[in-house]
Amino acid sequence: MRRTVIVSNRVASITEGSSKGGAGGLAVAILETLRESKGLWFGWSGNVREAPLDTPKHSAPTQANPFETVTVDLTPAEHSGYYNGYANRILWPVLHYRSDLMEYHSEHFRTYQRVNANFVSQLVPLLKEDDLIWLHDYHLMMAPRDLRQAGVKNRIGFFLHTPFPSADVFATLPNHRELVSSLCHCDLIGFQSPTDLRSFEDYITHEAGGQVHANEEFEAFGRQFRAQVFPISIDPDGFASAAEESERSDVANRLRESLDGRSLMVGVDRLDYSKGLPERFLSFEHLLDRYPENRQRVTFLQIAPYSRIDVPEYKLIRSRLEGLSGRINGRFAEVDWTPLRYINRGLARRTLAGVLRHSRVALVTPLRDGMNLVAKEYVAAQDPEDPGVLVLSRFAGAAHELKEALIVNPLDYENTGEAVQRALSMSLEERKERWSALMDTIRQQDITAWRRSFIAALEAT
Ligand code: ADP
Ligand code: G6P
What we know:
Layout: E1 4-10, H1 14-19, H2 25-37, E2 40-48, E3 57-59, E4 68-74, H3 76-95, H4 106-123, E5 132-136, H5 143-149, E6 156-159, H6 167-170, H7 176-183, E7 188-191, H8 194-207, E8 211-212, E9 217-220, E10 223-229, H9 236-246, H10 250-259, E11 263-268, H11 277-290, E12 298-303, H12 312-332, E13 340-343, H13 349-357, E14 361-364, H14 373-381, E15 389-393, E16 406-408, H15 413-424, H16 428-444, H17 447-460
Helix pairs in contact: 3-4, 9-13, 9-14, 11-12, 11-15, 13-14
The structure holds adenosine-5'-diphosphate (ADP) and 6-O-phosphono-alpha-D-glucopyranose.
6-O-phosphono-alpha-D-glucopyranose binds near residues 10, 25, 137, 161 and 162.
């Protein structure tokens, strides 16, 4: 079997991935993937040093992490220009349809290019002739061109974990042509949803002057490649067992006792403006306003660990949420009931699974999201005899697959509140029907299917 070399900005280990929440969907999915298929994972160590080590740091496989990792450090200037500046203040907002939040400086693009080139120059000596190279996410869009320029002939795949926005929106990025022409050096480009692929096709034909042939074959910038949809997923049965076991844990007992028979609504997200958290808080406020019978009877637990704390837009959203949560609790709390429990820490994965299982309703209402793994985790965590209801944004990639969820437009917070009311009063029969259809879908397209189909398509190019 050929070795798969995974390259991403963030590299996580099982200890980190399982005990600290908030590392995001990419880390969770790659950990699951490598647990099964071994291979090598190359990326940033998470360390920022004035004088980074001359050579990358190798860690041998262990029982917990049955794969090799090779990591590099960033200097403070690289961290600020490449990670915070270009990846998170320029690319991330545009990819999530928020060009209005883009804070463009050409210097950040130069740093981004330099860091992509450094990653590649440290990676190339490690490569073997028949390795499959699998690049992940928006931090590394210049890497395909650099790899080819370094003479690498291996098959190269790229998977974008975020949405690919409509061509008009992507073209608001001053460097859109450089980025896409670099991506075209791949053999295969993977997207989360048919909407993303359609936007990319549109970009290739209308902005890049390229062509899209049958069988998802593309021609642009003098290169030929394929682009396809590979919806990312989870290990549903593994997550379900973790949820069942966690039901008997100390935290689950404390949670159950503290609720005193009230229904639990849950939200779990990195604290990111793409997740629609203020709108979600407003929908909860609407629920309590419009349906006062829920007061004292329902508790909403929002878990939102801090993310990208140096980026100003993340600080702003954080203070907005602090204001809203204070207002909602100030308006509705009673001496013995806090309507909204707002926690800014990650939970251990197993604990999280138990919390999801115990929740009657999950609110997964991003304004835009590549996939959203929490939606799938919530379904997998449910008790088949008494499952809860998923309220899901139509703008999450997951909405393409999870059609039996209650689908909402998160910008219409009143309507989201109505959907929650419907979820809270849904009959057991309807909950079971919806849940079993959702769980079938997740089982059919799980994380193993995602990895296998991407690798098979890359090998076939
Ligand atoms: P994103 O990748 O944008 O963060 P996803 O929903 O796709 O969004 O993935 C988030 C992942 O991180 C999920 O696997 C989720 O369980 C995990 N996660 C998010 N917040 C927490 C938290 N507070 N505690 C534990 N895990 C978390
Ligand atoms: C999203 C991105 C990932 C990123 C994660 C966490 O899932 O698609 O690439 O790793 O968020 O963000 P961070 O900036 O902490 O890596």
